[in-house]
Design brief:
- There is one protein chain.
- It is built from eight helices and no strands.
- Helix 1 crosses helix 5, helix 3 packs antiparallel against helix 6 and helix 5 runs antiparallel to helix 6.
- 37% of the residues are buried.
- The chain binds fe (ii) ion (FE2) (2 copies).
- The site of one fe (ii) ion (FE2) has 5 residues, from helix 5 and helix 6.
Length: 241
């Protein structure tokens, strides 16, 4: 989950540069929004009806409602920047897709699946969501910091909106891991946790490298930083393998 310190420093800087340019900022917020919207485009997220406990069912439904609300919050921010809200940003380049490609289909429930199989798949869904949410929470934290700088310099009011998203994402990180551990046996949990951790890590290097190159090619308003971001993209591509 952790980046080398130099990559963390470059990513923080990248968020500041993104936020400084309204066109690039709207593009980045559309990427966030695409991830928030992903559950609305598939049938296998938030399987509350398969939850063996009403508390977990309630948490899954609340999580689903949170992500739908975040979609609207990001749309409002994009429009506030004068940008266009895009349902299909960069040909459907959605982070969730990248993770799912790396991890395979581990949680799609099929008709005829036994209660035990549904329990196991729900555990996998929770761990898929856990590692995704942890990455999003980190990214959103950096983005909130960048927006705080922007707000104090320009009078915009974006940081409090991002802070509300961050709060929800941290709650999602927490309950998904807790309930996966309760649902799965010890061995199932460790195997599933390793699988989803590796899938997210691989997807992250690939996705970040690609977005970094897109930024340099399309949005790089800071020619003085081109070499730095290009080197960072190169490094992330090597890490992705
Ligand atoms: Fe979200
Ligand atoms: Fe979330």
């Amino acid at each position: 989950m952790r980046f080398p310190l130099i990559v963390t420093a470059v990513k923080r800087l990248w968020h500041t540069d993104l936020a400084a340019d309204p066109v690039a900022h709207a593009w980045a917020l559309n990427l966030y929004r695409a991830g928030e919207r992903h559950p609305q485009t598939v049938a296998d997220y938030f399987p509350a009806n398969d939850a063996p406990d009403p508390e977990l069912a309630g948490l899954l439904r609340r999580h689903q409602a949170d992500e739908e609300r975040h979609t609207k919050m990001y749309a409002a921010l994009i429009e506030g920047l004068g940008g266009r809200v895009l349902d299909d940003v960069d040909d459907g380049d959605v982070y969730n897709h990248q993770i799912r490609q790396a991890g395979g289909d581990t949680f799609g429930v099929r008709e005829g699946d036994s209660p035990n199989e549904r329990r196991r798949k729900l555990g996998h869904f929770l761990l898929h969501a856990h590692f995704l949410e942890a990455r999003i929470a980190q990214s959103v934290a950096w983005h909130k910091d960048a927006c705080e700088g922007l707000d104090s310099g320009t009078g915009t009011t974006m940081a409090p909106v991002i802070a509300r998203v961050q709060e929800d994402e941290e709650r999602h990180v927490d309950y998904t891991a807790r309930w996966a551990q309760m649902l799965l046996t010890g061995r199932e949990f460790h195997e599933a946790r390793d699988l989803h951790r590796r899938a997210e890590a691989a997807a992250n290097w690939r996705f970040s490298a690609r977005q970094c190159r897109t930024w340099v090619a399309r949005h790089g308003q800071r020619p003085d930083r081109r070499a730095l971001y290009t080197a960072c993209a190169w490094f992330m591509e090597r890490m992705a393998g």
